[in-house]
Amino acid sequence: MTxxxxxxxxxxxxxxxxxxLARLKALAMIVLVALLTACAVALAxxxxxxxxxxxxxxxxxxxxxxxxxxxxxxxxxxxxxQRDMLAKLRxxxxxxxxxxxxxxxxxxxxxxxxxxxxxxxxxxP
Length: 125
Hints:
Layout: H1 2-5, H2 17-36, E1 51-53, E2 62-70, H3 78-95, E3 100-107, E4 116-123
Parallel strand pairs: 1-3
Antiparallel strand pairs: 2-4, 3-4
């Protein structure tokens, strides 16, 4: 009578359980590594023309908006994380139709923290 009330959760063969658990563990590790590993962002073709400018009150550039980007959890080095954040800033600026950005903040620390960068997207003559 119990078999009819409770669903059967174990494999039919009790010897198959260790193999199923091993496969689930391997799949979980692959997913975890994929989520935690940061891949460097490729620079979009339009972003290759985006340049960094100095903020200034006399600038003839038109402000498009604030750009905020963040990275992954693991990078091989701090310079790699910095390059990735700047590439993301350039990509987002280009996506907004800009050709320049003013850099306001770059936060890249050692340890378990996500790097981030902030800037202002602009269109300059």
